[in-house]
Each structure stands twice: as C-alpha cells, then as structure tokens.
Design a protein that fits this description.
Layout (H helix, E strand, L loop, with lengths): L11 H13 L6 H14 L3 E5 L2 H11 L7 E5 L5 H8 L3 E5 L10 H6 L5 E4 L11 H11 L2 E5 L7 E2 L10 E5 L12 E5 L2 H10 L4 E3 L2 E2 L10 H31 L12 E2 L5 E4 L6 H10 L24 E2 L3 H9 E4 L7 H14 L1
Parallel strand pairs: 2-3, 2-4, 3-13, 4-5, 5-7
Antiparallel strand pairs: 1-8, 6-11, 7-8, 9-10, 12-14
Length: 360
C-alpha cells in the first residue's frame, strides 16, 4: 500500500447534498452556485466570487475580464503548471517567463521586474505549493508601472499573510477545485475580486457573454459551474479550515522529523497552507532515483514540476519571452514533494519520515 500524495475526501454530507440537487432537477448553475460563491468570498475575505467549471477557465476568464489580448505581454513564472501559460496564449497574449525565488519557489520580484517591457499589461504570480508570492512587493510594482495584478491561487486556498490578508487581497485571483487541491468540487474553479465591474464582466464571460438571457454583451463561453459541483463545494468549505490546520500540523511534524532533506522556506510573514510539502534532493543526489526509491518503499512522493514551462515543446513553435531562468531549471531538477494531506495518520507520517531519512 502506497501512502498517496493526495487523498480527496467525499463524505456523507457531500453525497446528500448532491442527491438534493439531483432531486431538485436544477442541475446547472443556480442557487447552489450562488450560495457557494457567497460562502467562498466570505471565507477568502473578498467582496465577490464567481464560480466556473475548472481552474484553467478561471485563469482565462480573469485575463479576459481585464481586457488582456493580442499585443499584450503577461509576466509569469516558468516553474508552475502549464495552465499558467496556456491561459495567456488562449487570450492571444504573449507569456514572458521570469525566474523564481530559490527559497519559496514563487515568482521572483527582481526577475519579474527585469522581464517588463513596454508591452507588459499584467504580472501573474503563482502562490506555488500553497505559499503566497511576495504580494506586497508585486502590488507596489504594479501600482508604480500601471500594470494589472493577477493571482494564480490554484493551490492557495486560505493562504495568507500574518496580518490576515489572504490570496486574492491584491488582485483578481483564480482558484482550482481539482480533486488533488486543498478542497474539491470534483472539477471547478473560482475567481475572486474586490472590483464590482470585473465581477460583473466575469459573470457574463462564463455564461456565453450574457448579462440577461439572450442579451449578449461580450464574447463569452460556457464556463459555468454546475449546482452538483457547488453543492459538494459548500460542504467542503465547512471542512477547509480544519483541513488547513491539519496540513500545517502535518508539515510541522515532517519538518521536525526529517534529517536528510529540508522543505522549501516559508517566509515569517506568511501562512503556508501546504498544498504540497516540497523538498530538495541532497546535493549531488539523483532526485528521480530518490522518488523511485520512495515509491518502492510505499511513500507516494511526486515531482511538481520536472521541467519549466518555457522548455515545453510547444514553445519551440509559439512566441514567448523569457529572462534568466537558472533557479527554475535548478528546481525542476532537484525538488520533489512528500505526502502532507490532512487525512494522513500518525503512523503514515512516521513512515514518510522514516523512509525519506533512509533513502536520502
């Protein structure tokens, strides 16, 4: 039996909620979606939340709502999941890849600044692995340069600064509810914003560009979340604070017991929510061999991400920009993640620690 890197939980409450929706006959976007949006906005500390069908469409809709398109450049990290870049391509804009901070693995403010050009319209940091990027610095940079600040918060539900400001407090932020995330709706996404105009445009974009039925004001798509997904999400939201506390506790236990590897740094002003507990292979060691050995010993270690987005084959054919990416390339060679999800037992945590110390 392998201790999995993630373990989605669907309880009796979620199942009963789905049956309630099925019995109602109202399966597509409706009152459950509205309730989920309101509850998510409140928990995340935002004025508005707009639910969509997955995390990638959340990113695309956010870019569209801000009018980003052909001729524009968006600065993003290369060390992330591909959707961070594909959403930029999807609206016709040009992704410009910048490097990461070697300690937090989040977009480097210095590298992002270096990547700016007269065509830059937006910067989109990723709160990677559940750790906030340096948002106060990015907010200041965007204000000084007149740029749009977007947040890829797919992995950062309830991530916050010590003063309580959560992901989404600085710009338009996109979340994912994919099954491996800190909470799930099966598939789904959410955009949060404090801008009423952007929220209204997002609601049109997700619903074929309509403000009211058969009145199409903008180009839109079917990005709607179903009531089925929202019903699951409402129950998951009730569990999310407790799950988050458990992730943090599990990460603390791992950090106390691991002697051969160290986790990515957590800045003292951040509340890291540990979507992943990520470490670097010891110097001179083959990361992939370590991961294989751990899996053979029953520890479901995984690599997120084995190559920077800039090195994906599509970017041999598609125009993109980049600045120095040495830290991205190093992280892609060296980092791997260990199980930290909230359903781990004490025995499983002890096994993760024991086997990692033995292998590394």
């Amino acid at each position: 039996m392998v201790i999995g890197i993630a373990k989605p939980f669907i309880g009796d409450e979620e199942k009963r909620a789905v049956l309630e929706v099925l019995d109602s006959g109202q399966l597509v976007q409706g009152k459950w979606v509205e309730q989920f949006e309101s509850a998510f906005a409140e928990l995340q500390g935002a004025r508005y939340a707009v639910a969509v069908n997955n995390g990638t469409t959340a990113l695309c809709a956010a870019l569209m709502a801000h009018g980003i398109g052909p001729g524009d450049e968006v600065v993003i990290p290369s060390f992330s999941f591909f959707a961070t870049a594909s959403c930029v391509l999807s609206v016709g804009a040009r992704p410009v890849f910048a490097d990461i901070d070697p300690d937090t693995h989040c977009l480097s403010v210095a590298s992002a600044t270096e990547a700016l050009t007269p065509k830059t319209r937006a910067i989109m940091p990723v709160h990677l692995y559940g750790h906030l990027a340096d948002m106060p610095a990015f907010a200041q940079l965007c204000e000084e340069r007149g740029l749009i600040l977007l947040e890829d918060a797919a992995q950062a539900h309830l991530a916050a600064l010590a003063d309580g400001r959560k992901a989404g407090a600085w710009g338009t932020a996109s979340f994912s509810f994919y099954p491996s995330k800190n909470m799930t709706t099966g598939e789904g996404g959410m955009i949060v914003t404090n801008d009423e105009r952007i929220a209204a445009k997002l609601r049109m974009i997700r619903n074929q560009g309509m403000s009211t039925q058969y009145l199409h004001e903008v180009v839109g798509y079917n990005f709607r979340m179903t009531n089925l997904a929202a019903a699951i999400g409402l129950r998951q939201l009730e569990r999310l604070p407790g799950w988050t506390d458990q992730r943090i506790a599990n990460a603390s236990e791992l950090s106390a017991g691991l002697t051969s590897v160290k986790p990515a740094a957590c800045c003292s002003e951040c509340r890291h929510v540990y979507h992943q507990y990520t470490v670097r292979a010891p110097e001179g060691r083959d990361r992939d061999a370590i991961v294989r050995a751990l899996n053979e010993r029953g520890v479901g270690a995984r690599v997120y991400y084995p190559r920077g987005i800039h090195s994906q084959p599509i970017f041999e054919r598609v125009d993109s920009g980049r600045v120095g990416l040495s830290q991205t390339e190093r992280a892609a060679r060296e980092v791997f993640s260990l199980p930290v999800h909230p359903l781990l037992t004490e025995e499983e945590i002890a096994t993760v620690i024991k086997e990692t110390n033995a292998v590394c």
